[in-house]
Structures are given as structure tokens and as C-alpha cells.
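Class, look over these C-alpha cells:
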Amino acid sequence: MNLMETHTEIIKSTAIEYAVMNEISQRRSKRAYAPTPVSNEIINSLFEAARWAPSSMNEQPWVYLYATPDQPELREKIIQALNDSNKIWAKQAPLLIVSLARKTLLRNGVINGSARYDVGGANALLSLQATREGLNVHQMGGYNRQVLIDNLNIPDSHEPLVVMAIGYPGDLESLPENLRQREIAPRERFRQEFFVRNESF
């Protein structure tokens, strides 16, 4: 399929069409969270999964700042930066994580052009580990970057990427109706023929 074809001709599917890990098939970005806290042991496991992600020249440019309910002031600083549409539900998540990219290489101070890509890979492994633990991860790009930088005193050497709301799945009735409908909607993705090629363009 030509990637320039109109959206009405794009093929999507709700089915897992080929064998994948259970954590991939089960992962979904939900918005309803239970108040159950995430233990320190599991939090450490999430960051351990991120730790072992591949990175360009093994620079490991990911940096994480997290807050639990035991740190209400720190949590509030993160929540304040979120878009209103995300605050509605994300404030219920017991674990909030800010992922950042270290902009330059440790070895020579040169700009790391792969930093964002590498942090994305680390976030993916963190999310799969969370799914294995029965947790839900919802990654958000909807936040005010400058507010987050100011609230958390993020240095210019680091770039904030996504904020993650993490916790155990909760009651859908806790969400507004429009968000409830999004929660129960089928999860769908473009089929492989839309994004995989075995020939040149």
C-alpha cells in the first residue's frame, strides 16, 4: 500500500495477527487507576528494565524523576504541568514518572542525536515490565514543558520527553463519560502492509 493513500483506504485491525509476547498484547494506555500504591520493589523493577535498554554507544541517556503519594508536593509539581484534559485522570495514578533525555554525550559533551530515540526505547521496556506486573502505563506528551522545567528545576542539559502515569487498573465509573467511552473502545493499529516494505520506495 502506498503511504500517500488517503486515510479512508488505510487498513487497520483490532486483532493480534502474529504471535507476540503477552505483555505486548495486553498493554493498553488506560486512564482509570486504583488507589493501590506501587511498591518500591516494583518501582525498582521498572527502572531496572529501562536500565537494560539498548542505546547508541551505550550512553544510556535516560533520566527519570518519579513521585509517589508519599511525596504530595513533588506530585503536585508534576500534575500542575499537565494539560487539563490529562489532569482529570492522571492525578489518580499512584506513580508519576517524568522521563528526560540527557542532551549531550558523557564522553565528549557533543550533542547526542540519538538521545530521544534511546529514551523512547527505555520507556518501552519500562512499560512492558509494568504490564508484566499488572500495572497500566499511560504516557503523556500533553503538558506544559516550561512549567515542568520550572517546577522541577530541570537543567538545560536535560530535555523532558513524556510524563507517565502508572498504577493498577481502576474502576471505569471514576472517569467522565467521554473518557469511559475511549477506555472501552477497541484497540486498533495499522496493519503491517501500511508500514512494512520489502522493496524500495
